[in-house]
Amino acid sequence: GHADRRIRYESQWELARRGELQPMVEIAIDAKSSSIARLHSIWGADQIDRLDGDQTVATESTLAPLLNDDDASLRAAAAKVMGERANPASAEQLLSLLDDDSPRVRYFAAMALAKLRYGAALPKIVRLLDENNNQDPAIRHAGVMFLASVKDKQRLVSLTNHKSVSVRRTA
20 to 30 A Cα–Cα from 29, which one of 71, 111, 130, 156? Predict the structure, then answer.
């Protein structure tokens, strides 16, 4: 990737405008490429998908392995894209990211699971909120967004008696 962010963005936007998904995907999955180039490729693939919904399956299938990448910024970006696509097939991978070492990855995983309305994630979200102990406002926000997406309101009401103050406040 170019040192100047403006040039990187212009390149990303131009490839997205042309609908050139394949070059974006090749860079995104190439572990030898720089993190910045790979990030721009993820964002560009997301742009292409937004412009051309027919690319959704290709985008999701090629970006899903990035949820397990060694680079936390790439895992976070992939989680964000997968959440915005709201594909239930990615739910289990996103659920595992709630245990990631990176708070940014955990945030985007929780937000993605909220968009998926994936109720099975509730115990892990509660644990995330408990462990967070109101320390990271972004994690708390992601927890709130997830809890707001829960369909079973009785499960939420039960959280008002949780042992953790941070969980009770969030619920």
Answer: 111
